[in-house]
Structure formats: structure tokens, C-alpha cells
Amino acid sequence: MNPVQLALRVLRADRRTRVATLLTAVGVAVATALVLLLASLPMAAEARAERALWQQPQYELSTGGGATISWSSSTDEIDGELITRVDVAPLVDPADVTLPPGIERLPGPGEMLQSPDLATLARERPPAELADRFGAEPVGLLGDDALRFPEQLVVLVGHSRDTMPDSAMELSSFGFGDAEPDELLSLLAGVGVVVLLVPSLVLVASASRLIAARRERRLAALRLAGATPAQVTAMVAAETGLAAVAGAVLGVAASPLLHRLAAFVPWAGGTWFAGDFVLPVWLVVPIALVVVVLVVGAAVAGLRRVVNTPLMATGTGYARKPLSWWRLLLVPAAVAVFFWTLTQASRQDGTMLPMLVALGVLMWSPSLVGPWITSALGGVFVRRWRRPAALLAGRRLRDDPKAAYRASAGVVLAAFAGSMALTLMPSLEAESGYYSQFREEVLYLTTSEDRAAAIVADADEALAGYGLDVRAARVDHADITSGQELHMAVVATCAEAKRLLPGTEGLTCRDAPAIYASQPLDLAKAGVHDPSTGSTVPLPADAPVAPMPAAADVVVVDPVLWPSGAPAQGVSVAVPATEKSREIVRTALLGASGGEQVISKEMMLGQQDTQLADLRRVTVIGLVTASLLAGVSAAISTAGSVMDRRRTFGALMAAGTPVRTLARALRAEAALPALVATLGAGALGTAVAVGLFGLVSQSAPVFSPWIAAPVVLGALVALLAAAVCAPALRRVRAEPLVDE
Amino acid sequence: MHTQATPLLTGRGLVKRYGQQYALAGVDIDIHAGEVLAIVGPSGSGKTSLLHVLAGILRTDEGQITLGGQRIDQLNETRRSELRRTEFGFVFQSGMLVAELTAEENVALPLLLGGRDRTTALGAAREWIGRLGLQGKEHRRPGELSGGEAQRVAIARAIAHRPKVIFADEPTGALDTRTGHDTVQALVESARTTNTAVIIVTHDRELAASLPRTVAIRDGRIEQAVPTA
Fold this sequence. Notes:
The structure holds two protein chains of two kinds. Chain A is α+β, with helices and mostly antiparallel strands. Chain A has helices at about 5-15, 15-50, 115-125, 185-210, 210-225, 230-260, 280-300, 305-310, 310-315, 325-345, 350-385, 390-400, 400-405, 410-430, 450-465, 495-500, 580-595, 600-645, 645-655, 660-695, 710-725, 725-735, and strands at about 70-80, 80-90, 110-115, 135-140, 155-160, 170, 440-445, 475-480, 485-490, 515, 525-530, 535-540, 545, 555, 570-575, 600. In chain A, the strands form two sheets. In chain A, strands 7, 8, 9, 10, 11, 12, 13, 14, 15 and 16 form a ten-stranded mixed beta sheet that branches. Chain A has a six-stranded mixed beta sheet with strand order 4-3-5-2-1-6. The radius of gyration of chain A is 34 Å and the shape is elongated. Chain B has one domain: 3-Layer(aba) Sandwich (Rossmann fold). Chain B has seven helices and ten strands. Chain B has helices at about 45-55, 75-85, 105-115, 120-130, 145-160, 175-195, 205-210; strands spanning about 10-20, 20-30, 35-40, 60-65, 70, 90, 165-170, 195-200, 215-220, 220-225. Chain B has a six-stranded mixed beta sheet, with helices on both faces. In chain B, strands 2-1-4-5 form a four-stranded antiparallel beta sheet, covered by helices on one side. Chain B is globular and about 50 Å long. At the A-B interface, helix 12 and helix 19 of A face helix 2, strand 6 and helix 3 of B. Chain A: GO terms for molecular function: transmembrane transporter activity. Chain A: It is found in: Cell membrane.
């Protein structure tokens, strides 16, 4: 009988082996499906980025000759949702312009193609709030192949060459080719593989625990009957291999379903097309094979005891497995190395690799230290117990802490990574309010000196037409030198500055035109810097200088006092808005400018919020998935631990020990390592995050309630582990003295 | 031979079926306080089923069991567990000690589970370990004890809470003849000091012959109940 036949025979005969095999297969399926999903993420991101290449500037297509289109892109928003706007004018016969996939024809001047969601939105909202921004008539829809994600708001506006925005560039074609990978998503996918694969494999290992004792006896009997180590190994490889292959096939089969679910998770502003996640066969097969090899390899490696000492394996010997204290040294050592690399990284460039290696060692350290802490905790229980539950749990934790801790290993990584991310995110969010050059509720548009007046006039006309009293203002920017100092200057009246510039709320305006500065300004030495010639145009030496609040780090010069011939380095048109009028003001500005970029503090913060929300979402999904896997592993481990000792527990129950008493002991035994591991890993992750945050910011880190999430999930794992104690014991009670 | 009029534990018309198979097919049995009784029979004769039914581990399908005149066969699982914990003690074939606990902790365990405090339970455990000749081995784990020593710990565990009846299921099954005999003697002598009845299930006729009374069972029926010593 060959090993596969023997494995099938055992499967047919033994119900518990069937259950364990099924659980192993499920574990392998979960691991395979998760790895396939994570492996597909960078490709999915690339696929969506490639579809959107026509929306991105590609400077290598900008040529002196051979240009076919004049092209410009800008971002806009409505109700916080990003709108991508592309303006285009053909420079050759439109029929000769190569169109990107998903765009059936080039819109002519005054025409536009919209994405389906934008078209719907434009129909539903008053024209003043959206449709008027584009200054064109909708003539069709963009296809899926032209959209970054299904619900993307994007518009392609047709022009003649002379109506294109100032920012337009001449290109040989729309963007095409290979997109840059999403580095953040690729990094997260890599972390995800570690954070989710480990608990998946722990789940597989836990499943094998269910039949560990029974299998050891069977294999030991076979060894004693003359089976060689190679034959025993082949039998286990066959047994596990059957489950692993079945699981891998199941994982591959379930993969499209998982991909479909993943497609609903927003990233970078939108969800995904299901087709984004398709993985090539040349990648699927090796991934599935590696998972199978890992699982079979782990099972074979676990045979050492049976192969080496079959007699011991058949006995009931119980060996204590104490741990050395040196394990404890690893954490401070890893922390010290990490923070040393951190300080080096903050001093110079190019030391990220040692820091990442140190971070890896830090992430690994809980798996060495965790069992020691578990053992130490068991020692406290053994010394201080008052009730049998504490005694039983304490002895178990003390004597075989590695086994007790094993089921928690999966959640440790998740807790570590989760705590790190959930500490960093609120701190980064607190930093993200920094856009001091913009005033809240003011929309800004950068344009040229030539067009500024026309845009102001058109915008004012539109604003009046929409029934708003607010008006646009031109604001010129320049640099003022004063001795060795260089100041940013804005040409505006005091009233306009108070209305449009950040930090000017406390400004007191003089009756007469003046220069307002937050720092002393020596007008005898001060002048407007001309970057084109390097010369300076003096400011009027007798101009009154008034104080400017320190919060406004800018010099405001009244237009009356601006020296003639002094160059402006930039021209903005700014319009204050309210939450209610924001979309209409935006429409007026965009309609007037014909597609220039309009920005606001709210828009910039909104984009940051989107990124942080993505990170938070991914972190929470990863944490919850890892915790569920770890919880199931812990539950199976607990059930296996009960089954290992069913004769002992059966005898205790036969002698009248209530199930609830034994369950209480087992619950403590199962839950404590998970809690200890989670708390420890959470604390370590938080410390590392504080260190990392110190690298990028001088501010104090912000601690939000989210930081408790890993601990809550650790408690969930502990609860899941503990929940199976009573049912497993009740199963033993049904036949307390039946042999294993 | 015991002559008390009122038996401590009685079984009347005990029937236990597993599907169509009769493990017990109408057994009547009396056990008196302090009595030592061997139940012998071949494999599958029903002797272990009888022990489990009398101890309340298994429910009877028919018949009555009384302890001290009170019916115990109709008690629910909770009450039967309580009864087993307080009135009965158990010794199993391979000791079935908790591998992680020391000898004294194993002995103290039923007392702790019964609500005794740590000091009292460990004190009683040490006393019984001493009485059974295991001084100095209180802190050893079951894996560090010989088979005979582990069975003595199991006996100490069974008797430490001074039960009315000790049920021993093949207590010498994993021991050599000499050690087995010594172990049973230790059990019998310990029980005598507390006037505890002992019911020993064994397939060892020689061992049974050394005990005061033997009941032979075959095909779920009592064959004979004769005094042997």
C-alpha cells in the first residue's frame, strides 16, 4: 500500500482526521486566496493606472515637432469628490489623432465626453453647481477602458487650439504604455503577505494539532513495526499533501470571489473593476505550489520526534520545555538597533535599509519573547493560584509556553503592524492641516498676467448671473528683498488681503494705502526682486509700513504703492466662498478660465484625507482578517489541546468535575497568551510608530482611540479561543472514558 | 462477609443497551459500607458498564440504583456529577493523572474542585501521599513516577476527600503482577481506614481471588456472587 492509499484509508476510517484534513484544506485555501489577492494588488493598481494614462501628463510625449494634440489636465471637485478634467484640441486632422481605449471619438470644440457617474451628477445638479464648469455640451460617454475606477468622475473637454488653458502642452499623442506601479499599495501588499500568511499557516498548523497525538501514536506504531523514517515521512507528506493540494485548488477557485469582494474596497478615490485583479497563470501556479510546499514541509518537519524516538512518542511522557531568559534581551536589542538606525536615518540619506532590517527583527522579536512572557505569567499563576482553574492554566503556560503561545503568533504580527499604523495615522492626520498658503473657504486659480483680467471679469459676470454678491480678485505675487532677507509679497488692498489671505484675520487696515509686514521692513533697502535680470525695483521709500499679524507670513503691498515696472512672479485669481456657495463659485471660476486648475485648502486636505482613509481602511481590514484567522487558529488549537488530553479530562469529569470548572481553566489557558501577545506586540508597535513619526516630524504624536483596536481584536481572538472550551469538553463528557 | 441489613449501594434490575446489544441484562447487586468487591469477567461481559452505571457515569435504561437508601439513577447530570465528586472516588487503569500537575496537586485537585481552599487541599494531599508511601515525591510529575507510584497517586486522589465508595476500573491493567497486587493492597488498606467501600473491576482472577468478595459477570448477567476471602 503506497502512502497516498494509506492516507486515503486513514481518512475514510477516522472522523477526526477528516475534520483536521478539512480544516487544513480550508487554512491552505484561505492562505492561497489571500496571497493571490495580495499578489494581484500591484498589478490591479497598474491596470487602473494604465487605463488613466490619457488623463496624466506624460512629458516624454511632449515634442517640438510631430505633436498631434494640445493637452491639459486639471483636478476639480464636487462635494469633496475629485473630478479629473482633461482639455484637448487637435493640432492635426482629428481623424489622425490616436484615441485611448474607451474613447470613441475626439470631442470637437464646445463638446465633451463624460464618465457615466459624472454625467449623472451633472444632470442631477443645477448647471451652476457643475455642468457650467465645462463650457461644453455632452456628446457621449467615456467607456470603462478610459476610467481609472468605475465611479470615477472624469471629463474630456474639446477645444480649438486658441481656447486651450494656459497650462496646455503639445503632445505627440495621449498617454499610453506602462504605468508606474503604486508604490504604497505594493508596500502594503508586501506587508499584507507577511501579516496574513503567518496566521493562515498557523491555522493550518492548528488543524494538524487536532490529530497530533493520534497521528503520532499511529506513526510511532508504524515505526515500531519496521517502517523507515522515509516511509513515515512519505505517509505524512501524502496525508498533508492531499489536504494542501485540495486547499490550494479551493483557494485558486475561490480567488475570483475574493477579488470581487476586494473590488468593493475603495483605494485612491474609488473602487475597482473586477477585471483589475486578474492574475496570470504563470503567477498563480507557483504561488499555489509554494503554499503547498510550505504546508507539507512544516508537517514533515514536525515529525522529528516520531522519526527519532518512536517509543517516546507512543508513551504518555510529559516533558517540561523551559525557555532561556536570553530571549528577553532580543527586544531591547532590537529596539536599540532600530532607534539607532532611526537616528542615523534622520541625519543622513541612504540608511533606510538597515532601519527596515531592524524593523523586521523587531517584528520577529515578539515570537521569541512572547513564549517567555507566557511562561513567566504561568509562573505567577503557579505561585499564586487560589483556584484550580488558575493552577491548571498556570502549569500549562509554565511548562509548554511555546505551544500555548503558538496559536497567538498570528495575531501578534497583525497587532504589531496595526498598532504601528494606527499610531502613525492620527499623528500624520494632525500634521495634514498644514497648508498655510491657503485660506479656508477661498478658491484660488493661477493664471497668466495676460488672462487674469479677463478671467476676473468673466468670473464676476458669472457670479452675478448666479445671484452671488461675492466677486473675484486678482492677486499678484512677487519677492521682496530687504538687505539679505527675502520676503514673499502679495499685491492687494488691505481689504482684499483680509478677505483672501491666510493669517490676516487680525489685520487692522489703515485708511490710506500702506505696506503691511509682520517683520520690520527697511524701505530704504527694500525692493521687488526681478528673477529674470537679478535686479531690484525699489519700493517707495516714504510708503507707510503697518504691522501684519505674525500668522500671515507675507508682505502685502497696496496696488497704489506697487512700483511701476516691477514684475509679478505669479498671478492668482481668488474668490472667497462659503460652504453653501462653494460649488457655484468653483463653477464660475472654472467656466471663466476654461479649465485652469482651481485649488483650495479644503481640496488639498480632502486629498490627504482620502489617502489617510485608504490607509486606515486597509489597516483595519488587514487587522480584522488576521485576527479572525488567528482567532480560528486559537480556537482549533484549544479544541486540539482538549482532544490531546481527553482521557484526563474525561476521567476528571467521570469523577464529578463540572464542565464549567474545567472550561474556566481552559479558557484562562487559551485566552491569556493571546492577550499577553497582543498587548506586548501592540505596545511595541506603538513605540516603533512613535520613533518613526519622530523621523518625519518634530510634533508630539497623537494617540487616538484607534490605538486600542489591536487590543480589542486580541481580546476577540482570546474570546474565540476560549469559546470552544466548553463545547469541546461537553463532547468529551458525552463519552468521558472512551479511549482516544 | 458483610452482614449489615441495609446495603450502602444497591442496583436492582439494571439494564444497559448499546443499540440492540445488551451490556447489562438485568443485574441485581448490593455493596455494603467498607466492603471490598471484585467484579470479574471476560472482555465485553459488561463489567465496566456495571461499574459506570453504579457510579452514575452512564444512565441505566432500566432498573434502580440507590445510595444510602436514596434513588440516584433519576438524578440529572449536574446532581450526578456532584454525587461523583463528593460521595465517590475513582481509580482508572493508567491513573489518568493530569500530566502538568505535580503528584500533590493531582491529589488535591478533587478537593479544590469541591471548594476546599489551597492550604487545606494541599495538606490533605500530602497526608495521603505520605500514607501511600510516596513521601518525597509530592512535587514529581506523573511522567516522573513509575506506573505503580502513579497508581498510588491516583488512589490518594480517589480517597483524599473520604468518599463512601471507590470505583476502580482495571487499576492494575498497566502494572506487572507484583506491583499490581501491592497497589490493590494499598487501595484496600486505605479504604479500610475510612470505611470506604471499594468496587474493583478486573479481568485478573488471581487478583480477584485475593479480595473478600467477587462477582462474576458474563453477557450482562451476574454469574455468581461468592465470598472469596
